[in-house]
Amino acid sequence: MDPSLNQRVTSQDADRRNDSRKAGPGDTAPDSIPALNRCLVLVGMMGAGKSAVGRQLAQRLGLPFLDADTEIEKAAGCSIAEIFEQYGEAHFRDGERRVIARLVDDGPIVLATGGGAFMDADTRALLKEKALTVWLNADFDILWDRVSRRTHRPLLQTADPKGTLKRLMTERYPVYTEADITVVSDEAPKDETVNRVLAAVSDYIEGETK
């Protein structure tokens, strides 16, 4: 990653927790789309559908959509896989933290983050302060079916990618529960998952105003 990346973007700390609202099959889109005055940030494992769902959410909400990994690649001038290979995961996480902080400061957007982004304590604190976070919660079979179709996942370039995926889920899922909202990501059509997110976001915002 370009070392100047660390000088081009900044990160901030926060310390706030919110209760989670869970949404799954049966939740439908609200009668009116909620108005957001902050970023809507999707977190979760690789293969959970953050980018695909995020694009549709952005269209429905009338907000820009950004993918954190894509923005990191733009800033670094190389792919995520190349960053991992040339500089290592720690260097990638540092740049990821700073890029996400910049994107969140840009105003209300729908942002899809990488699977490890929410594991960073500073990023987690920043998102809790400045964004509404949604965990797309998918089970192992769903994730493996999706990620096994592609070979660009650096963390799965191991002798036992299935075992690696299970280990990552074990490590990350307890932290993902700190997201404001949890939504099930399963085999349902993408627009149904989008409806679940919108319903959960609407309920969450309504709860904040009471």
Overview of this protein structure:
- 50% of the residues lie in helices and 12% in strands.
- The protein contains 9 helices and 6 strands.
- A 6-stranded parallel β-sheet has the order 1-6-5-2-4-3.
- Helix 2 crosses helix 9 (190-209).
* Major β-sheet profile: 6 strands, parallel
**Mean pLDDT over the residues:** 83
Main sheet: which strands, in order across? 1-6-5-2-4-3
Derived from helix and strand composition plus strand pairing, the structural class reads alpha/beta
Number of helices: 9
Tally of DSSP β-strands: 6
Helix content class: 40-55%
C-alpha geometry: globular
Distance linking N and C termini: 45 Å
SSE run: HEEHEHHHEHEHHEH
Low-confidence stretches: 1-20
Assembly category: single chain
Beta-strand percentage range: 5-15%
CA-based gyration radius: 16 Å
Give the SSE map.
Layout: H1 5-8, E1 21-23, E2 39-43, H2 50-61, E3 65-67, H3 68-76, H4 80-87, H5 89-105, E4 110-112, H6 121-130, E5 131-137, H7 140-147, H8 161-176, E6 181-184, H9 190-209
Helix pairs in contact: 2-9, 3-5, 4-5, 5-6
